[in-house]
Each structure stands twice: as C-alpha cells, then as structure tokens.
Amino acid sequence: MSDVATIDAEFAAWQERVRGKNICETSLLATDYLNHFNEVVMLIGMVPDMAEVLEDAKGWKPKSYADHFRDSGFSAKEVAIEAYEHSPRQFREPFDQTVARLNDGVAWSVARLEQLVAKGDADRIRHFAEESSRQLQKLIEFASAIINGNTLNQGEIDQVLRRR
C-alpha cells in the first residue's frame, strides 16, 4: 500500500471514529474548544459596565486543546484529544495559528484594559473593550470556520489584528 493510500485509509478511519461525536469529520476538530475563549471575550466586553469582571478576565489563562478537553465534561473528550493529533495539516496549522493569536489577543486586551481602568477614562475603556471584543470574536469565528472544515487565508486572520 502506498503512503498516500495509508494516509487516506487512516484519515477515513478517524472520520468514522468521530462521526456523531460533535467533532468535524473534515477537520477532526471540535468547536467545544472555543468555549474556552467565549467566556473571556464576554468578560472583556462587560468591563465598561462592570469593572469588577476585569478580575475574572485577569484570571483567565491559555489552555491547550488537549487540556481544555481533559478538564471538560465533553462526552467524547478522549476521542477529541486523539483526533486533534490527526487533524489534516491544512486545518491544524491555521487553527493553531489562530489559537495563538487568540491567546495573545486576550492577554494583551486584559493588560490594556487594566491600564485603562486604572486611569479611569470611561470612554476609552468602552471603546477599547468593544473593539477588542469585536476583534477577538472575529478570530473565534475564523477558528470556528477552520474547525468546520473551511480553509482560510492567513491574510484574513492577520488583517483582523492590524486594526488594533
């Protein structure tokens, strides 16, 4: 059997293994991982109206895909962790790059909000929180598109962060 046939057979086996488990059969990735980001992005957006949620946002830490699932109640978490390792490169690489940008973006946004809150400029806090939330949400949408089997141009992802 050729290497390509072996890879195709292995991928087909993984597609069958994830079927019906809320894991995309095309990318072998699960959108459940994005819950890790959705909560902190919501907190960032709430800071202008409830400054005390900044403390919760400051407590957020990046979490690897595998760690997220290990700590989750996701019913197929072991399969999700294993499937990630077999995700095709055209999905896994842009997904990992987008996650890295999300991790950096959240950390930067929380640190900047902390500075703005210390200065007490309500208008700047609101503007920054809204813009950060919007940009981070766009990155979550990119990650979701990748998870759901769509390939993205890295330039599209880069463009979101250049607006800062």
Describe this structure in words.
The N and C termini lie far apart (51 Å). It is elongated, with a radius of gyration of 18 Å. Helix 4 runs antiparallel to helix 5 (77-85) and helix 6 packs antiparallel against helix 7. The protein contains eight helices and no strands. The chain has 164 residues and is mainly alpha-helical. It has one domain.
Instruction: Give the proportion of residues in helices.
Output: over 70%
> Low-confidence parts, pLDDT < 50 over ≥5 residues?
none
Q: How many distinct folded domains?
A: 1
Tell the overall outline. elongated
Structural class: mainly alpha
Count of DSSP E strands?
A: 0
Distance between the termini: 51 Å
- Provide mean pLDDT, rounded: 91
Strand content: under 5%
Major beta-sheet overview: none
What is Rg? Answer: 18 Å
- Our count of helices gives 8
Order of helices and strands: HHHHHHHH
Key terms for this structure?
164 residues; mainly alpha; 8 helices
Summarize the model shown:
The protein is mainly α.
Topology:
Elements: H1 3-18, H2 35-46, H3 53-58, H4 65-71, H5 77-85, H6 89-119, H7 122-147, H8 154-162
Helix pairs in contact: 2-6, 2-7, 4-5, 6-7
